[in-house]
Amino acid sequence: MVTLTTLHWIFLFYVLVVIIVMGLRRDPLIPCLIGILHIGWMYSGKLVGAIQSVFNALVVAGTEFLGIIVVISLIVAMSKVLTELGADYVIMRPAARLMVNANVAFWILGLSMMVVSWFVWPSPAVALIGGIMLPIAVRAGLPSMGAAMAMNLFGHGIALSSDYVIQGAPTITAKAAGLGSEQVVQASIPLVIVMALVTTIVAFILIRRDIAANRAVHEKERQAFESKNQNVEITSLSVIFAILVPLAFVADVVAMYVYKLKGGDATALVGGTAALLLALGSVLKYGVESLEKITDFVRDGFMFGIKIFAPVIIIGGFFFLGKGELSQQILGKGAPGFLEDVGLALSNAVPLNKAAIAVIELAAGMIVGLDGSGFSPLPLVGSIAAAFGSARPDLNVAVLAALGQIAGVWTGGGTIIPWGLIPVAAIAGVNPIELARRNFIPVIAGLAATTVVAILLM
């Protein structure tokens, strides 16, 4: 029998504050820092110990996330070299030629966005796909809004919520849930498939209806794009790298399968490959000047990585107090895992069925995702999954954590909140509020179906 102490209730109070702040679309970093300070003071009984706890929490979270920060930064840096070489244009051009009509354009544009986002993340992929393939898709008859929906749902939705190559999202979720990232990845596969099929099919149907109802408007838009020509200098080096880069990452995937590389080992392989391609591309493009140019690429890449993860480190530092092993690294020996204890206490006080647990996890991911950051909800949903796992040993924690991850990323990653999808809206030339409205029905339908499947698998 677990007895909840004053510290547990203080922790829950700050969890509630964080959720409310995020629900109001404000950043929760100050409440998280104050929460760590308060709990550290109560636990140690000393102000000095409390202040140390704040720093310890950030170090623990930073250490847990360091590997994924580095690999994402390197991949973004590598993508900048590809753009300089013109290799990105060569890579995308064959897929662009397949877009012969609006129906085909939707799926080719979306699938291309998904694949590229898996390897270089959605933010760089928006510029790449938007600059090269979006104009061709519109010329093929796909409305700009339909193109924006395809890029958004496949990139910031399917690719970012699954994150199977870089594994940033499952790594964060798994750390908070006390699991290996490969467990979350495997558990997410059926959920991601359901979410992907429902959202994209519903979106495709709605776009087809829009095209049929507004043919004259879309024809004028298509004609406007006909006048836009792309002039990209293609060299033999562009072609070489357009072949080399995809082959290198395909080889990584094969190596992961052959050598059974998972989690950090798989991430290390992808990161090392990106670093070597970055160096090679810089040398071949700039020669001696590459000694300075690569520094610019790396700096830009790491600025992007830190920009994404800086708030997540602080939020993660607070929610890591919910797990016993990490809580002890922050507060000291003997510190409890606050959310784990709460989960056990709930199991003794309230009969928790799988449907109720799944809905709570879904709601937590969506509410916290309202801040517009796809990764901010992950420490919370992972911690909640671990807490319910402590309460019900028969529960499949990995499935529950994957559900929360999908809910949080699809909401916060930028599919149904206007402030989260501005880059896609800008490059497509559409209103972000209208894009969020168009995405709403497909995404909500997908989340509902995915939750049902998760309940069956839990």
Quick rundown:
The protein is an all-alpha fold. 81% of the residues lie in helices and 0% in strands. The chain has one domain (6-457).
Descriptive terms for the model:
458 residues, mainly alpha
Structural class from helices and strands?
mainly alpha
Any idea how many domains? 1
| CA-atom Rg in angstroms | 23 Å
Distance between the termini: 24 Å
Biggest sheet record = none
Helix % is over 70%
Protein name: Transporter
Keywords: Membrane, Transmembrane, Transmembrane helix
Organism: Heliomicrobium gestii (Heliobacterium gestii)
Transmembrane segments: 6-24, 29-48, 54-77, 98-119, 125-142, 189-207, 237-259, 266-284, 304-321, 397-420, 440-457
Describe what this molecule looks like in 3D.
By secondary structure, the protein is mainly alpha-helical. The protein has one domain (6-457). Helices cover 81% and strands 0% of the residues. The protein is built from 21 helices and no strands. It has helices at 6-23, 29-44, 47-85, 87-97, 102-120, 122-132, 134-139, 144-162, 168-177, 181-213, 215-226, 236-258, 263-286, 290-319, 324-331, 338-349, 354-369, 378-391, 397-415, 422-428, 432-457. Helix 1 packs antiparallel against helix 2 (29-44), helix 10 crosses helix 19 (397-415) and helix 12 packs antiparallel against helix 13. The radius of gyration is 23 Å and the shape is globular. It starts with 5 loop residues before the first helix and ends with a helix. The mean pLDDT is 85. This is Transporter. Keywords: Membrane, Transmembrane, Transmembrane helix. The chain crosses the membrane at residues 6-24, 29-48, 54-77, 98-119, 125-142, 189-207, 237-259, 266-284, 304-321, 397-420, 440-457.
